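Entry 14. Structure prediction run on the chain below.
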Amino acid sequence: MLELSPETRLEQRCNARAMGIVGREHQGFKPDEFVAYAFANPVVQGHVIAAGGAALRSRGTWYHVAYRCETSDDGLRIRAFSYTLGAPVPRQEWDKHYLVP
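Output returned:
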């Protein structure tokens, strides 16, 4: 992970946190894919990323997700994380938003 650029490390670490926390907090969810830029590009400011247009796949269905995440200076530890899990993304929108089946 330390070989990644700081911005990529921040995004990857926070995407992993999103998948993990959704899997723990939402019964029946098994996240296996995450796209931070599906509906809007994430905004990075220093060690904080806001991914308001993200999507997460669980059991073959994509869901809207938004999160805000702050990491340590090295990008490895999560200092703060909040998220909102939204509605399923209609199948006809998947290709348009880089969401693979």
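The chain has one domain: 6-89.
Filed with the rest of this week's runs.
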